[in-house]
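User: I'll paste a sequence; please echo it back and then give the predicted structure.

Assistant: Echoing your sequence first, then the prediction.
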Amino acid sequence: MPGTLVFDIGQVLLRYDPHLAFLDLLPEREARLHFLTHILPPEWNLEQDRGRDWREAEAMQIALHPDHADLIRAFRANWHKMVPEAIAPNVAVLEDALAAGIPTYAITNFAADTFMEACGMYPFLTRFHGRVVSAEEKLIKPDPAIYRVFLERFGKRAEDCLFMDDSRANVESAKALGFSVIHVTPETDLRAEVRGYGFAI
C-alpha cells in the first residue's frame, strides 16, 4: 500500500478556467473560445509551464497577432482571475493528510511566477513537504522525467506513492513508472478514493 500522497494542483486543488480572465474583455463566449483556441492556444500557455518567460511569450504572439496585443498581455495580467477558488473537499483531504503526518507532496505544471502568486492567494499550497514545479525544472507532465525528478529529490519509490491528477495522460505516465494513481474528475470523491488505498483520513 502507498504511504505518500502526491497532488496535482490545477483542477485538483484549485479551479482553473482561463475564460474567467476575459469575461469583461470578450463578453461573447464564442469570441473568447476563438481567442483561447487560435490566438493563445493551450500549447502556448504550456510553454510558460515549461519555463518560458512571459515577456518572450507575449512578444511572440503579438508579432503574429498585433491587433490583439492588449488581449494577449491581459492573459498574464488577469491570471489571478483564472483561479477563483479552491476545491474545498479536495483541499480538506490535503489538510487532513498533513495533520495526520502523512508525507504529502505536489507535482504540478505551473509557471514559476504564477505559482508564487497562487501561493499568496492560497497559503495551503506552501504546506507540502516538498514540491516539483514544472517551470523550475524545465520539464512538464506527462514527461516521465519530471516524476523521476520527484522520486530522486525526495528519496521516494514510485510504489510507495499515490499520485492524483486531472489529466489522464499525466496519470497514465505516472502509473507506467509504478505510482498508484487517481484520475480526478469533478465527480471524484477524493477522500473515498484515497481511503481506498489505505490512508486513514
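The first helix runs from residue 29 to 39. DSSP finds ten helices and five strands in the chain.
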